[in-house]
Amino acid sequence: MIFPFLRGILKWTEAPLTWSIFALCVMFYMMTFTIDRAAEESLRSSMDTEFLSVSGYMYYQYLDESGKNKLNPELRERILTGGAEPVLYLGSKALRDQNFLEVYNSFSFKGDQVAIANWKNKMVEHLRNIDKRASQVFGLSYQNQSIWQWITYQFMHGSFMHLLSNMLVFFIFASVIEKLFGSSVLGFIYISGGLMGGLGYLLLNPGVTSPLVGASGAVSALIGFYAFAERHKNVKFLYFISPMQGHFGFVYLPRWVILLICIVPDVSAYFATPDFIFSGVAYTSHIFGALWGLIMALGFKVFSRSKATA
Amino acid sequence: MVQNNFYESESKLSRRKIKFTQPKLRLFAGLFDFVFLFSALYLLLSPVVKKLNTSLLLGASDFASDGMFLLFVYGTLSFFFYQFISVAIWGKTPGMHIWGLELQTKYGDTPTWSQSAIRAGLFVLEFCFFGIPLFEALTHKLGRTLHDRGSELYILSFHTEEDQKPGPLELRFISQVTYGFFAAFAFSVIMITAQLHSAFSDSAIQAPGEELSCLKGVSDQEVSAKNQIDKALALFFAGEVSSQCLSQELDREFWIQQDWTSLHYMTKGFVLQSLNEDSAEYFNFACEKSSTDQKDFYCLWKDLATDAKVDLNKVAKSFSSVELVSARIFAHKWATELGHISLAQSIDMPPKSELYGRYFFRHQILSNFISDKKNEMTAQIEAASHLLTFEDISHALNYICNQEASSCPSNSNLPACKTIESHTDSDRALRSSIETGVALLKYRSCAKPQLIGADDMSTWFNDVGWSDLVDFYTKATITNDETYTRRVERLVTSNTIPSYMKRELLFVLSSIVSNEDHAQFVLEQESRLPLSGKQRQFILGRLQKSLKQFDSIALEPLVKSRLAELAVEDEPAIIKERSPASESSK
Question: pTM here?
């Protein structure tokens, strides 16, 4: 394991905005945790394998009939030969396609009409359960795009592990940026990076109903900014090979290694994930956030130079 | 820290101690190289990985093996060029640079291009043998690897130990990370073990794959859609395929995209009926959706399926010449089961074929015996014995013995029971089949019908040596209950068994365990047999659990009250155990 350590976690007095954003994210998590727990339970009960399977078949018909069937040929072949797993993937995609969800009730599906009528009833219940989730209120998606949702999604997290991993990376980069460039720069990059991450998610996942939550877009912007702001200096990394003495410690590496470790896997994963899978990680948001951080870093350099020459 | 500044490293070399590299540092450098190469490769090969992921997720093996091979080839080539180019140009890989290592010839020169190529080639070869040749370096006095010796290169270290030492705060952080690492590792091991365990348990249940590929060539796309579903349904009625198989057939995309006919709805109705689920809507739909000329037929079929009152002659007329094989088999089976032999004979059966073989074989033998004017029971025994399976014979014998013993005629008129008793396998049967145990118990109790109380019963048990039988019966009950409870638990918690299959298996299991006659019988026997309090509690507890598990609530209060009575009876014993010695010792 190798991970950027930079200056570690700084104190409240040294990085007040970093700690404030952290507190806000934790508060949001605690606030939404109880709401989501109940909603998740009812959602789990409404979404069984059979429901997903029928949704997959119906979605396939919808894509075929509406001329939008641009499915992966292998997936198509597997569905036509009766594969059960591919239908489930398609079913889960169906439940995230806003265009499908808008027309499913009036669409004339072929096949077992009794089962289709049952499925439609289940679908209504499922959508009702989905609306109960906190991520529908605070998250950003195709159908939920009010101005405040573009901001609130950056502070909301879906699970404890999601919060923990984001906050660990956030602390390491945010505290250094705040220390070196000031709180206003950190605040601006965080919020604007989150906005760009959200934009990337909506642009590259058209019609997706799954809400985007989490600070990862904004954190990627911080990573991109830091890696490019002063790219000629080496930074401190923590390496850990085994718990034996001498097998862990710190090593100074060039800044581009940060991108290699933190951003390149996201880009690779985005290109390596099959179209019919919804991975649960918004790679597009990470990539757009990092790109925005890079642009900000270049802009900051130009601005600093022009200020110095003036 | 190894190097405080990437760009200043060369100027610092002269100030550092040069020595042969420790294997540890080489390993670290290799791991860093792996991280760099892997990140770059993952990005470059992401289209291949995407295709491979698609194949693996969809369960199609077409690209899975080719993709793995392609990745292996790309990976090997990239590794070769990574090592070759970096060593040829800089005399070290990026990983070596971080750890202050460098390759030199024995004269202290930087490696030549040919030396770099030989080293990279040998390194790749070592990995082709799973890296095992690398361990040979441990036996070398200078710790040199085969690829270094082959290319006549020496790997030297330019770093000092002091560079790596972390400060006290960093040490504290690292120790916390170490604990976290151990916790995560332990958690992963537990999770993986649990998943493997679950996967192996599931595979044990699913082992007989026969049931999932059971349509025996019926689903041939060349046969018309109507004929396909007709044959599948006929096989189902003939007992040749299970309802889960038929259900799977109906879930196929081929059918999903068709406009369903009345026959489809009827088939689905039968599938649901056999799964003990609500099927009425399907039967109604089949009747309503049928065309005018077939309305009578489908509505009649619906009535038959739902046990409504039907005119027998109308059924005979309607089903005898109908095109559907499934309808004729259904009517034949229905008429035979109800004992309307003449009606069954009036239905034209389809030409005999392998598909319905066992059904015809069974009925043919039975009707031959009956037409020979034999006693129907004797005919059944003989017919069953022709089927040559122990289960068929014992089932027939048990059934008939139960019938015979219910009226308790003189012992000489109980041939089936005598056959069971004289059967060499009866001991085994008693241990494995409650049914046989029940039949024999009934048969033997005919010898002494007037038993007054439990004491008489107990004395009589001892007189006739029935303790073995009681043991057998108890063991059979426990074994059965235990087996089914375990199977049900495994079934319910399985993640890989499809839901429709779960439903069917649960139904099959529940019909065995929660059969109320059986439960009633267990209750009766429990009150009659001379069992200890613990034995009674054990049997009743298990029965209660079974009844609860399958929502069979009719007998549950009875079992509960019986258990409560036992608890009250046991109470003095418990008090006795606690008092005086135990209390005083406290």
Answer: 0.57
